[in-house]
């Protein structure tokens, strides 16, 4: 009997184990990337490119090569050019018209507001003593964080052979916002252009009579580059 008990304990010990999960974060948060890409979508979708429809064009992206998310900006603009009926050429010499784009801003801002007691460090009361200071943690009653991305671009087109202008967009600034609110420690309650309604801690929160689905559609007007399309 003792031998069986010992064998059973050994088998249980062999089967027992523990595991660990490694969690990592990207250098840029998903919220920041979504806000910037959404503001880019809005700015580019606002461009009316009918002036170059049917024309052979080359996109000159020289002046946006060093802005944030330049690859997404350029690819979205190329798609919008094609969707507007222009013939996009990869080589400058093959095009009759040049479309040049520049960016005045592609970035984010953040604003934090706290109603409550901020984190406070109280130094030691005894001078020259090696006692550690005391830190009082943050005690928020209501806390709000708002982050917004801004994209400001300008596009113009000119004849490659004559150098004469044929069209310009003017300045096109668009922003995308996201807001997170904590109430007595509960939250975040999230709203903004990148969310479908109100989210609570990353999940959809349905609030009857306050956030009906019928009202949400008006906050998200359709944009051409964000929808499925087929070109004949």
Features:
232 residues; nine-stranded mixed β-sheet; alpha+beta; 4 helices; 21% helix
How would you concisely characterize the structure shown here?
The chain is an alpha+beta fold. It has helices spanning 2-15, 30-45, 70-83, 213-216; strands at residues 56-60, 87-89, 97-117, 120-122, 134-136, 139-159, 165-168, 172-183, 186-192, 198-200, 203-205.
Please explain how this structure is put together.
The strands form two sheets. Strands 1, 2, 3, 6, 7, 8, 9, 10 and 11 form a nine-stranded mixed beta sheet that branches. This protein has a two-stranded antiparallel ribbon with strand order 4-5. The chain starts with a helix and ends in a 16-residue tail after the last helix. With 232 residues, the chain is an alpha+beta fold. The protein is 21% helix and 37% strand.
């Amino acid at each position: 009997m003792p031998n069986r008990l010992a064998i059973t304990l050994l088998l249980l010990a062999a089967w027992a184990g523990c595991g660990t999960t490694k969690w990592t974060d990207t250098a840029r948060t998903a919220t920041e990337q979504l806000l910037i890409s959404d503001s880019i979508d809005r700015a580019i979708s606002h461009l009316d490119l009918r002036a170059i429809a049917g024309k052979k064009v080359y996109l000159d992206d020289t002046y946006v090569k060093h802005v944030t998310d330049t690859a997404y900006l350029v690819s979205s603009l190329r798609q919008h050019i094609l969707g507007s009926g222009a013939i996009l050429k990869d080589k400058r010499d093959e095009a009759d018209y040049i479309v040049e784009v520049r960016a005045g801003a592609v970035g984010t801002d953040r604003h934090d507001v706290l109603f409550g007691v901020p984190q406070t460090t109280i130094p030691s009361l005894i001078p020259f003593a090696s006692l550690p200071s005391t830190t009082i943690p943050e005690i928020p009653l209501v806390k709000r964080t708002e982050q917004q991305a801004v994209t400001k671009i300008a596009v113009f087109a000119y004849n490659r052979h004559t150098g004469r202008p044929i069209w310009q967009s003017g300045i096109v600034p668009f922003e995308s916002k996201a807001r997170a609110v904590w109430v007595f420690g509960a939250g975040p309650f999230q709203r903004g252009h990148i969310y479908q309604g109100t989210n609570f801690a990353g999940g959809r929160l349905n609030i009857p009579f306050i956030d009906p689905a019928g009202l949400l559609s008006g906050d998200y007007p359709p944009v051409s580059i964000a929808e499925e399309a087929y070109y004949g």
